[in-house]
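Worked problem 6 (solution included).
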Amino acid sequence: MFLNYQNLFLTAWSLYICSVAPSEGANATLNISAAAESPVFLPATEDDSAAPFILMSAFPDDLEVSDYCSELLSLFGQRYETYVNCLVTSARPVKVCQNCFGAYGMLVNTYMNISSEKLGPGNESCRDSLLRSDRLMLVYLLFNNLKDMWTKSACDNCINDGFQSLTNDTLYFMSTLNQTLTCFDMYQQRNHTELCKNCKSAYKVLNELYSRMEKNDTMCIDIEDGMNVTRRLWSKNFKCSLPREETVPVIAVSAFMLFLPIIFYLSSFLHSEQKKRKLIHPKRAKSYAASLMNIQDKQS
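Solution. The predicted structure is:
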């Protein structure tokens, strides 16, 4: 009797399993296996199977970012991306100051709006909600990384206040640099001796201008890299040389110092010989006088 009830139960259970769709059976199998593997999570019910794994509940109103701050954060992200893209495309040759100062200026302006105490509608401030609301302070870190890069590039030396344009010194240097590179392009396919001769004047003017800007501390990374590349082309690629005028006094002083010991010993030798002659002369005069006296005595 017990066996009949058991067979009847197994038959009914088999019919129920067969009536379930294959996909549902697969989901059930996955849920059972996941529940077996994890001691924390329970198998998902039929109502939870369609729900995405995201946070569905909202934070309290006092913790949410206002619409104004959200728009400001979105604008910061757009301008951040624009500036980073400009940095990448201007990495080689280095033109990060002259090409990207406009994008950096807009990024700085947006960050100043975020960090301002009172700016938005109703004197609303986004500083606490966007800069200080978490331990990482992501917006602050992102901006300061780019700010450090701008500072290390010394771009402020080449850009006018307000990020409006390049300085006059920078524009003049870039113009002189273009003239020198144009001369290189004109003669580089010919004999390099001709290039060294015809481009010597332009290269000399560029070197003098760079030296003045280096002394006055009015250079940025664009000028420094442009001059380094030009010098490598001049000396390494084209095998040219440009003797500096300041080397002439150095050579003269070095030659004088080299011959100074010889001059010293020669003057000492001549001085000592002169003393010897002065000392010997009285002895000779005395002996000559004595010999005369002896001759007179003998005659008398």
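Discussion: Residues 1-36 have pLDDT under 50 and may be disordered.
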